[in-house]
Amino acid sequence: MTADISLTPPDPKDFLDTDSLFDEEERLLRDTVRDFVRKEILPNIADWWEQGVFPVELAKTMGDMGLLGMHLEGYGCAGTSGTAYGLACLELEAGDSGIRSFVSVQGSLAMFPIWKFGSEEQKQEWLPRMAAGEVIGCFGLTEPDSGSDPASMRTHARRDGSDWIINGSKMWITNGNLAQVAIIWARTDEGINGFIVPTDTPGFEAHEIKHKASLRASVTSELSLDDVRVPDAYRLPGVSSMRGPLSCLNEARYGIAWGVVGAARACFEAALDYSLERQQFGKPIGSFQLTQRKLVEMMIAVNRGMLVAHHLGRRKDAGTLTPHQISFGKMDNTRNALEVARTARGILGGNGITLEYPVFRHMANLETVYTYEGTNEIHTLIMGQALTGIEAFS
How far apart are CA 353 and CA 228, in angstroms? Predict the structure, then answer.
């Protein structure tokens, strides 16, 4: 006996029916974020991107929606599953990588270390306000001379009575000029420590990085710390090693593995719609074999990325997701999303370079996503070490 097979073609924009992989609650959350992006982000994002601004009022709106630190438990956080958080990242990045980056930095890089390694007093003081979008955070790890090798950081902190004195600089810090609080990682005599540093502390300065050709709807900064004094109560007591910042990076990388699928989907859908509308030689360009091949390759990449992200999400919720598997998702989904964006740009021809369509903006953004939170080379070596048991970083 063979089952009847419907001859009805699949939905072009959900070819493998990945929607069926999620339960009703997950789809409801996904649809809520998608509607927010459609109403609040998409009508404005081209102007924000062109002007190089992030509308800071979005922080409170996203806080009210429960998007900030949404996968954390307690302290005003929504406590959703990792899969639900991933779906939110996907929909936000379908709007713009800069919008998703804000949510990732706030929740996974600024709130998560307080939630994971902070004292109860620190959690009570900071997390509810950060979840509400009343306090914006940033994450200071990368330095001008130590990007892929954060263990070589020069920022250091020394004890001075019951205080710590921090000196150093951090580079490429998302939200740096927006933040009221920074999580600063520094070398100490006791190991690598994290410090909660209010940005109005004397000696702390943030300098916005201008003239970016990517992630323009996101604030990126250089941080300078010159004899910044904080009390020991502002040191994260739960970790004194690179395990601290690396665990935060894995949280952010997980969100990226989902987010870039949203950017790829937006580019594919724009190219598909355009190919059916654009007439050349008396017929839509979607009727040409070369264009159809490009559309099929993009569709496969988007659906494959969704399957990878979904699998990682279920493993995260089961507590079985490893950092090496996160590297798989971040590396493969990002490079495939970038290729989708480049292919879509070609299908749109001259229109592909205008902000009337989302494709070039996504393509430019993905060039940054390809590099940050671990370059593709670093993720290759992480997985290579897992395969061979041999570290090839140095």
Answer: 45
SS (H, E, C) 108-162: HHHHHHHHHHCCHHHHHHHHHHHHCCCCCEEEECCECCECCCHHHCCCEEEEECC
Structure token pair of residue 304: 């494959």
Mean pLDDT, consecutive 10-residue segments, the chain of 394 residues? 69 94 96 97 97 95 96 95 97 97 96 96 97 96 82 91 96 96 95 96 96 95 96 94 88 95 98 94 94 97 98 97 96 97 96 96 96 88 93 83
Q: Residue 194 is inside which H or E element, if any?
A: strand 191-198
| Size of the chain in residues | 394
Residue of 362, 127, 373 lying closest to 250 (CA atoms): 373
Residues 217 and 258 both lie in one domain: no
Residues 288 and 377 in one domain: yes
When divided into structural domains, the chain yields a total of 3
Alpha-carbon torsion (81, 27, 48, 344), positive or negative: positive
Write out the residue range of the structural domain in which residue 360 sits: 243-388
User: Both 224 and 341 in a single domain?
Assistant: no
Which single residue is written with the structure tokens 């989708």? Answer: 340
Residue at 5 is within a domain: no
Give dist(CA 314, CA 84) in Å, integer.
10
Contacts of 234 (CB under 8 A, 6+ apart): 122, 164, 195, 196, 197
Task: Give a yes or no: residue 10 inside a domain.
Answer: no
Q: Are 179 and 138 in contact (CB under 8 A)?
A: yes
What CA dihedral angle connects 151, 184, 142 and 49, to 10 degrees?
160
pTM of the model: 0.94
User: 99 near 44, Cβ under 8 Å?
Assistant: no
Residues acting as catalytic residues: 373
